[in-house]
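Key idea: predict the complex, not the pieces.
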Amino acid sequence: MKVGLFIPCYVDQFYPQVGIATLQLLERFGCQVSYPAKQTCCGQPMANSGYEHLTHDCNRLFVNNFSEFDYIVSPSGSCVLHIKDHLHDDKREGEATHVRTHIYELTEFLTDILKVENLTAHFPHRVGVHQSCHGQRGLHVAQMSELVAPPFSKPEKLLNMVTGLELVKLDRVDECCGFGGTFCVAEEAVSVRMGIDRVDDHVKNGTEVLTGGDMSCLMHLEGVIRRRQLPIKVMHIAEILNAK
Amino acid sequence: MNHADAAEKFNKDFDRTTWHDETLWWVRQKRDRAAFAIPEWEQLRETASQIKHNVLSNLDNYLIEFEKNAQKNGITVHWAADAHEHNQIILSILKSQGVTEIVKSKSMLTEECHLNPYLTENGVEVIDTDLGERIVQLADEPPSHIVLPCIHWKKEEIGVLFHKHLGTPEGCADPVLLTHAARANLREKFLTRRVAITGVNFAVAETGEFVVCTNEGNADMGAHLADVHIACMGIEKIIPKREHLGVFLRLLTRSATGQPITTYSSHFGKPREGQQMHIVLVDNGRTVQLGREQFRNSLKCIRCGACMNTCPVYRRSGGHSYHNAVAGPIGAILAPNLDMTKNADLPFASTLCGSCSNVCPVKINIHEQLYEWRQELTKSGHSPTAKTLSMKVMSAVLSNPTVYHLSGKIGRFAMANAPFVVNNSFNPWFKQREMPEPPKESFGEWYKKNRGEK
Ligand code: SF4
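Result:
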């Protein structure tokens, strides 16, 4: 199985350890993984700001980089959702369609495609999951609290396979953290307030390590945590699933 | 003031923002309990959405059918192309009656049309009879929520307001006592006013009747005691048959407040003897929205307010920050249709978390429409030049791997060695958050070193 590793721009630049953990994890499960060196960004920052028409070059580059793989996997639900919903290329729509339909967020790839049933990871901490909206409501990585339907969560299913790990129950299971791409600067006040409330729920319920499948939400929450000097560590779920 | 600035102002009072958020979240939880008590909830939503789909595809026919049947029942039907015409029609009815004082129950349409100020300017005194609306009216403010108009007011503040206007004892903040005072005051108005205006929740094409839902019975008090009942409705409020009411009445109040049904769901079929009944059917931009395919679904809205209660942004910015009669997520997709220039900020007042779309009882794809409005507003030139420029730069960098890698390196180097470049007051991220700590090497650099070029 040839897997193309898509490491979003901000993960590439600020969180290389998340990329490394994702790569190692996929390799541990027997995937033949490569990282196309010419990748940059999914184009979401432009598109969500109302400039979808400026994403054509980014799209073309993305198709160039990833169309030859059986699957494309990324440690970021939000970027995956953007590609799934909005990647097009007039000249190579067939290949674009292949990319759109074969791109996966890491936890859904592990659960749905690799059908992982056990892990060798060990992580003896109280872990609180931040359920990112695009992963949850967009990719349906977990059930959302609004829908009248049985609950499920792919990230939690995986975390439950980690020995020593204890999952924290939150008061509000799936409230948005307030990152929202350019929203985090355009609506700075509300964004920060949402981040504070999200973090407080974790503090209140005893989270030691805050994790999730979307590094962008975690980057925002980490910014809030560090400014307020709260005793919570932030790690991407790939790092925990890859922990020995 | 645009949404971001108004929201920042709102957020200055940290505890009040907490209180606002928690109050609305409590309503959202009540909604959850009510919805989860109905196993077929998701089917109900789908059915409601399909009925509305049919309505929007045949709107003209249903409206004509409704008009015919309503007229048969003895109701006078008026058509208003826009807000101004709506207001004029109402004023002309009042003039023909020689009336200068009226009572009005809750109607977001009359808010949308700015009926109150229009009538006031023309010498008519309007008393809002919904308790929440009465409170904001006394405070000379617009409602901040479509179902809970004064949700931003604390009971102590209402006590002060009532002391000033209704003579309640100073310092009294007892909801029961305050409600009694308001009731007593309103009773006098109900008894003396000859014209009552109400909104319309559902109008049934098949029968020519309409339904008004309230929890206080104030619409009924007004309409039953008055000689003239004027009902105002947006043309999208029509439903084909009486049997469809069951679907919507089950969804409406559960979504709004978590109640199984509104205390009063009153059917108005025909005027009683000696009474006049008018209905004003208002377009005011709705047919334009109907013509915009990607935004058409917004007309399915039954105004339950669930999307506001669930919206994490609304809860932390308050209804007034949306500077539009209808606030929150649904307001943000309706408002640009009314005025793109004035409301260009609203589709951006969202993280696109998608909670609104999934709570909506008629399954409006609100967050997708927010995204679409952003594209639409940018294309039609409603975007600041500076933003366009920076987006163009971003696009150029991100579509060129060499430039991207170089700028990433420079950026990280600057952050590590000259943090003041980014850690300053011009950087809105840094105001209340730390920047990420730049690592020595990017993932790309690590990969090249450790795995070589493949
Ligand atoms: S958009 Fe949906 S949730 Fe929001 S008020 Fe309308 S019907 Fe209710």
